[in-house]
Amino acid sequence: QTPEIQELALFGGQPAFSDQLHVGRPNIGDRDQLMARIGDILDRRWLTNNGRYVQEFEQKLAELLGVKHVIAMCNATIALEITIRALGLQGEVIVPSFTFVATAHSLQWQEITPVFCDIDPATHHIDPAQVERMITPRSSGIIGVHLWGRPCDVEALTDIARRHDLKLMFDAAHAFGCSHKGRMIGGFGNAEVFSFHATKFFNTLEGGAVTTDDDELAAKIRLMKNFGFAGYDNVIYIGTNGKMNEFSAAMGLTGLESLEQFIAANMDNYRSYQDGLRGIPGVTLLPYREEKCNYQYIVCEIDEVAAGLGRDALLKVLHAENVIARRYFYPGCHRMEPYRSYFPHAGLLLPETERLSQRVLLLPTGTAVGGAEIDRICRIIAFAVANAPAIAHRQELQG
Ligand code: T4K
User: Fold this and answer.
1) What is the pLDDT of residues 202-237, one digit of tens each?
2) Residue 339: inside a domain, yes or no?
3) 131-186 pLDDT, tens per residue?
4) Is residue 38 domain-shared with residue 159, that is, in the same domain?
5) How far apart are CA 27 and CA 33, in angstroms?
6) Which residues contact 54 (CB under 8 A, 6 or more apart)?
7) Ligand 1 centroid – CA 352 distance (Å)
8) For ligand 1, is residue 102 a contact (CB within 6 Å)?
9) What CATH number should be reported for the domain holding residue 314?
10) What is the pLDDT of residue 367?
11) Would you say the CB of residue 322 lies under 6 angstroms from ligand 1?
């Protein structure tokens, strides 16, 4: 029997799911291993300040990523701030506006101006041709974002940075476990920054890391994340507190043991979405390339004309069904404070960012979601698109 639109939860029907499905549901590895590590931490009473597990975690990450230095941090935002400072960035730094606001805030927090650059609509990544046009005598660096875990145009950005004598760093918050041209992300540019926040497919509760092959930079960042202490009672640098604690490192070490399972689950989910969304007019799933990838984000674009209903109308339908899809990264950093007050006309230079932020929709994935749920989510989306005019009319009536 064909469902009627009044069966949608938005119009009073039963939600498709009794519990909410989230985009960023944390993955948890082997609980017994985690509890054993936590027990060990409590027994040894060494909770933070470069403890044994943090050191082991850093070493394991360095091996995995093939990079000389890994500095574990309390979160990626502080890691970005410290790296920006350690690299001596000042004046202006070119960044995409289509990113999580932390990328821009980590600059503005230290009175450095983020200069927002538009993106390539095919990849959602900062567009190198535009980067080059935005360089001024005040520019000191570029921050590329490996959005959705896909590498941005590393070669072109490296070339621009070299020719203009700019520092280049990457916000690799999404890109743990991903490679670029066969090389793990972590070793590109002057430094890269990962996030291990709870909502990432690999988490340390809160956490992050800076990776670099530069000995001097690594030493500076190590000092900066620990108040500038070089041994007891000897502060030789300005610093802050960016340290990772032992519980977070225990979570990280435990998660590393299940990393391949997390990625496999994400990849299965991605394939299920590929099957389920195929052929729905106006709904496009952003493809992953044939590189090592974590598949952690299911990114769709909704074309209002072809689908018959816009992204926000679809979002309402899904939320009512307890599918907590997200509009990352709406509305773009340039439309958030303080940037929209500082640069009220920035949108004129960012047409692709403006367009994409109206179309993008992220769907639930991770180990908490499986094929059956995904099939149901895709059927809701197909039903909403097939009945778009009636749904839009009824939404209008409801106000
Ligand atoms: N650069 C980029 C490109 C980033 O994407 C991020 C962070 C950063 C830098 C900074 O990294 P950190 O300093 O955070 O390490 C979330 C995360 O908080 C943030 O880490 C992440 N990016 C961003 C994309 O997403 P919100 O404000 O959307 O989170 P929230 O609380 O709405 O949670 C997302 C979904 O996950 C919800 O539907 C609920 C669910 N959830 C969340 C948590 C915390 C759970 O099911 N369990 C949980 O424990 O920012």
Assistant:
1) 999 999 999 999 999 999 999 999 999 999 999 999
2) no
3) 999 999 999 999 999 999 999 999 999 999 999 999 999 999 999 999 999 999 99
4) yes
5) 14
6) 48, 72, 243, 244, 245, 246, 249
7) 24
8) yes
9) 3.90.1150.10
10) 87
11) no
Q: From the CA of 196, how far away is ligand 1's center (Å)? A: 10
Q: What is the pLDDT of residue 397?
A: 78
Alpha carbon 194 to its chain centroid, in Å, reads 9
What pLDDT was estimated at residue 368?
A: 84
Give the CATH number, domain containing residue 122. 3.40.640.10
The C-alpha atoms of residue 282 and residue 355 are separated, in whole angstroms, by 15
Contacts of residue 117, Cβ cutoff 8 Å, sequence gap at least 6: 94, 95, 96, 97, 126, 127, 130, 131, 134, 350
Positions of the chain with pLDDT lower than 50, given as ranges: none
Co-location of 185 and 321 in the same domain: no
Ligand 1 center from residue 121 Cα (angstroms) = 23
Q: End of a domain among 214, 237, 257?
A: 257
12, 158: one domain: no
- Name the token pair of 117: 């650059």
| Complex ipTM > 0.95 | yes
Determine if ligand 1 sits within 6 Å of the CB of residue 76.
Answer: yes
- Is 81 close to ligand 1, i.e. is its CB under 6 Å away? no
